[in-house]
Amino acid sequence: MYSVKSIDKLIKEFSNLPGIGEKSAQRMAFFISRTSKEYAKRLIEAIREVMEKVKYCSICGSVTQTDPCPICQDKTRDTSIICVVEEPWDIFVFEKAGKFKGLYHVLGGAISPTKGMNPQDLNIRGLMQRVRTNRIREVILATDPNTDGQATALYIAKLLKKRGIRVTRLGMGLPVGGDLEFADEDTLSHALNGRRTM
Amino acid sequence: MYSVKSIDKLIKEFSNLPGIGEKSAQRMAFFISRTSKEYAKRLIEAIREVMEKVKYCSICGSVTQTDPCPICQDKTRDTSIICVVEEPWDIFVFEKAGKFKGLYHVLGGAISPTKGMNPQDLNIRGLMQRVRTNRIREVILATDPNTDGQATALYIAKLLKKRGIRVTRLGMGLPVGGDLEFADEDTLSHALNGRRTM
After folding, report:
1. What is the predicted pLDDT for the residue at A135?
2. What Pfam families does its record include (chains A, B) (predicted)?
3. How many domains does chain A have?
4. What percent of chain A has pLDDT over 90?
5. A54–B9: do the CB atoms touch at under 8 Å?
6. In a mutagenesis test of the A interface, which of B1, B2, B104 is the best target, namely the one with the most A β-carbons within 10 Å?
7. Which residues of B111-128 are buried (b: 16+ CB within 10 A; e: fewer)?
8. Which range marks the domain in which residue A143 is found?
């Protein structure tokens, strides 16, 4: 089949990015082949900068340019409460909402037998270490509200409860701004169980 | 708001790619921040290679690593028929189907008053030049089957017909493998007009 080798190579590399299928990768690669050299250079520089400057926080495991990260260094935050998330990105979602003033802990994924992710592949040891050496009164398990996230939360909850720590899970129910008719059975059942008196 | 400067910069650059919204750009940038350095380096190299090695074919305007491109150089192809497309990518779609054995011509877009694209912004002059200096018996106008593509096809058809060349347009109708119930009125009307005796 007719092809341009360099573009094919770029399509393949773009396809490795999360959420990028073959069609999107093609579109992106052809765009690069026709765009200004200035944009391509800026993109290369931006990737290189992330590759070289972004590291992991040695405390919470999030991505950061300083170690510890700005949140772990922030003296104004409540150090007695830790919110456990799967990925660094989740922290940014929380921070955007701006309602949580405690610390975070990044697991680096979720337990998933199908994806070959076992408890020892996650940064659970780091979490237990933090719980042992700091005064923690509550751990919020904010893993994803899906099967893997639930299994992970249950696994960690068991370990933490042995140490007598208050363990909570984010409330599940209807998404705000959503449409009731699009809610699946599980969500609706959680929403019912979590109903409140008005 | 809490952020990591280098990641923010990369999100911004990724957002400039076609079809990539803010959420996808975030996902991709966070992926880069956590992926192996090997992958990031391969991606950088692939972008650089496209930037440095891919150029335009001086005959058809497609992207290529040699000039003329392999198709324009191919002695086995029918040089009397030109298929006119909007973007280089369209050529790859045709070549994948493998049914067309003539040459191509890339316009570089379509006439679009709303996007500020005028006939002189497209490589129409190059097409007329080819038609003048070569024995062309047919030009297939394969611009997109939307308003801009139709307007562009009509504009070029007028110019070519003055020169007495056979001008055709790709057939429009129901997409193969599609579902009749999802067909819009225009498609259905084209399908009706183009119906064939079985």
Report:
1. 92
2. RecR_C, RecR_HhH, RecR_ZnF, Toprim_4
3. 2
4. 70
5. no
6. B2
7. bbeeeebeeeebbbebbe
8. 63-197
Task: Mention every residue, 6+ apart, whose C-beta is less than 8 A from residue A139.
Answer: A81, A82, A83, A84, A127, A131, A156, A160, A165, A166, A167, A168
> Are A140 and A187 contained in the same domain?
yes
Query: In this structure, are A86 and A159 located in the same domain?
Result: yes
* A47 and A138 co-located in one domain: no
A170 plus A137 within the same structural domain: yes
Residue A18: list chain B partners with CB under 8 A. Answer: 27-28, 31
The yes-or-no verdict on residue A182 having pLDDT over 80 is: no
In the structure, what pLDDT confidence band is assigned to residue B32 with cuts at 50, 70 and 90?
very high
Residue A73 sits in the same domain as residue A162: yes
What is the identity of the amino acid at A140? I
CB contact under 8 A, A63 and B3: no
- Examine the pLDDT at B149 and tell me if it is beyond 70: yes
Q: Which of A3, A18, A33 sits opposite B28 (nearest CB)?
A: A18
| Average pLDDT score over residue span B163-185 | 82
For the whole model, what pTM was predicted?
A: 0.80
Quick one: tokens of A122? 């996650």
Omega prior to B68 cis, within 30 of 0: yes
Mean pLDDT of B161-173: 87
Judge if B48 and B68 occupy the same domain: no
Q: Which of B2, B40, B98 sits opposite A70 (nearest CB)?
A: B2
